[in-house]
Amino acid sequence: SQTIHQWPATLVQPVGSPLSLECTVEGTSNPNLYWYRQAAGRGLQLLFYSVGIGQISSEVPQNLSASRPQDRQFILSSKKLLLSDSGFYLCALRGTEGSPLHFGNGTRLTVT
Amino acid sequence: QKEVEQDPGPLSVPEGAIVSLNCTYSNSAFQYFMWYRQYSRKGPELLMYTYSSGNKEDGRFTAQVDKSSKYISLFIRDSQPSDSATYLCAMRTYNTDKLIFGTGTRLQVFP
Hints:
Number of strands of chain B: 11
Largest sheet of chain A: 7 strands, mixed
Oligomer: heterodimer
Radius of gyration of chain A: 13 Å
Radius of gyration of chain B: 13 Å
Distance between the termini of chain B: 37 Å
Number of helices of chain B: 0
Order of helices and strands of chain B: EEEEEEEEEEE
Order of helices and strands of chain A: EEEEEEEEEEE
Distance between the termini of chain A: 38 Å
Helix content of chain B: under 10%
């Protein structure tokens, strides 16, 4: 079965510090991978998606970037965090064509 | 106007009640509809996945899609305290993976 690993579960970082969140998946090959952010009362916002190694599409221009160095690894980064980057970051995958998205358990980021 | 509207609740019901959760949408091109359940501090978990109009049943859960009214529902029968969570609707068109989510309805089932 497909499994999504995200770490850390919680993170507190000062404004201006860098960020690296990692997502790895198991039980699937060549999945589509996604980064979502969930803010209170605002639903899930798609940030980036990737259809393969090195292929990244950005949905929302902002202070974040994403990379996919391996088929089952997806990384979300920032060089300098802003207060507005606080939120719950979720990695998701879609396996086969037409199948629904499955989510990891997320990283709660607080920027202070 | 948001593409997908969902009442945030909270919705508080006694154990054993039938729960009705709803979303309305504006884009008539949406064809795939999903319901996710999200417990506090966890990622969303897929509950139901339906295509086009009609009903789909899975245990105590029934998903209903009315494309003519642009309205989807999730019914929970014999609700349990363990059903207490936030329920998110999501939908997409045929030719994209991009899901549009509702903001979620918080449900509390009390014993």
